[in-house]
Specification:
single chain; 2 domains; two-stranded antiparallel sheet; 12 strands; about 40% helix
Length: about 325
């Protein structure tokens, strides 16, 4: 097994996957394999990946018969590999050649660092806007993209701990992956494809892991998916919009400690009631989130008990790592 596995989940990604893979092939750190999990694309994504894989043994294509989402696709890779680190790569990412080398260097100083994230930029302009520089944690249980929309020239950048990593390009330590598993899953597959990075960020902090932002790691990521943007939201599929509602409730039910739970829900309630009213008046399919939580309440609460028990037990596997 190579030192690093790069995990890419595609779904109708023909327009971007070749540029993504070519940026991977240009990395100065070369001891890696690339797993491309295709979620039943209807376009020629698989053919494009296969053509590149035929000329580079490091790239392997893993087509799935059904769409298992971001979570199921990456879990497929995490469950079948044992590399010391895993870099998740969105298919619309293009990395600078030294991204992986610099990210690994940022991961190395301390075993408490579970994740490294870099500086994602929206374009190749002379002074581009920042897409993300890690995540910010909000008092209402939501997370935001740190420095999102700021001009690069105006941003104050430095290596620092942040609340979590954007799911577009996080580097995870294998010990972090294994420590965060619940019921065998790293990513909670109930999230499917939205806010799962928020869930990992919250659980990682709860279990005592650090996320480091390293601005020297740079990549292009022209983000389009922003469900809070109502003009864009109206063009999204109903399942994605319902997931955006459901997943926020999963976050707020599973992750706050018993002491935090009332405060988070009190701060979250006005917005969540507004979302319910909006759904009732203008976006009826999103009301499926209510039905989902009602039908799966017992298993959601069972997940909460396991997460909170793990958190109360201390840093567990992390302490063992530090003692070695």
């Amino acid at each position: 097994m190579k030192a690093v596995i790069l995990s890419i989940v595609t779904w109708n990604s023909a327009g971007v996957i070749e540029a993504c893979l070519k940026s991977i092939q240009s990395q100065t750190f070369a001891d890696f394999d690339v797993w491309v999990v295709d979620n039943a694309s209807a376009d020629d994504t698989c053919a494009r990946v296969a053509a590149l894989a035929a000329a580079d043994a490091r790239i392997s294509l893993h087509p799935r018969a059904t769409n298992t989402g971001f979570c199921g696709g990456h879990n497929y890779v995490l469950d079948r590999t044992t590399s010391a680190a895993v870099l998740l790569v969105n298919p619309d990412i293009e990395m600078e050649p030294d991204y992986l080398a610099r990210a690994l260097a940022a991961l190395a100083p301390s075993p408490t660092i579970g994740t490294v994230c870099g500086l994602l930029l929206q374009s190749r302009a002379a002074d581009p806007r920042i897409d993300s520089a890690g995540l910010l944690a909000g008092a209402d249980g939501r997370f935001g993209l740190r420095l999102h929309g700021q001009l690069l020239s105006q941003a104050v950048l430095g290596t620092t701990d942040v609340a979590g990593a954007d799911g577009a390009l996080p580097l995870y330590r294998r010990a972090f992956i294994d420590d965060l598993r619940m019921d065998g899953q790293f990513f909670d597959e109930r999230f499917f494809a939205h806010k799962e990075d928020w869930d990992i960020a919250w659980r990682g902090r709860l279990f005592g892991w650090r996320t480091v932002f390293e601005p020297a790691c740079r990549a292009l990521h022209p983000r389009e998916f922003r469900p809070a943007n109502l003009r864009l939201r109206r063009r999204l599929g109903s399942a994605i919009k319902a997931d955006a509602v459901k997943n926020q409730w999963l976050l707020l039910l599973k992750n706050p400690t018993a002491r935090q739970l009332p405060g988070y829900w009190l701060r979250a309630l006005p917005r969540q009631l507004g979302i319910l009213l909006y759904s009732l008046l203008l976006e009826r399919p999103s009301l499926r989130a209510v039905g989902y939580v009602w039908q799966h309440w017992a298993e959601i609460w069972a997940s909460r008990r396991k997460i909170q028990a793990r958190a109360r037990a201390g840093q567990g596997a992390l302490n063992q790592e530090l003692a070695q």
